[in-house]
Write a structure and sequence with these properties.
single chain; mainly alpha
Length: 88
């Protein structure tokens, strides 16, 4: 059974816009801090770690998909430019 525990959210803590890498690093530190607390149940620590690992995996997939989409769209642009040149 999971027990509720206190995680404080501090709005405005980060003044600049953070990219996902910065956020993952920040979340990793927070996960480590939470998991180091003695009053947090072991099953909650396990779920928090698993969720962080899943977020990290999804971020890597997102980067890969974006890169592939960019490559595909740049190829389309190149071919349309070529078509335009040939049509002239």
């Amino acid at each position: 059974m999971l027990h509720a525990f206190n995680v404080q959210y501090m709005p405005g803590k980060f003044e600049r816009k953070m990219d996902m890498t910065d956020r993952l690093e920040s979340w990793n530190l927070r996960v480590q801090e939470i998991c180091a607390q003695a009053d947090v149940p072991d099953d909650a620590k396990t779920i928090i770690r698993e969720m962080y690992e899943e977020i990290s995996k999804l971020d890597k997939q997102n980067h890969s998909l974006r890169r592939n989409a960019l490559r595909a769209s740049s190829k389309d642009r190149m071919s349309s430019k070529l078509k335009d040149a040939l049509m002239e």
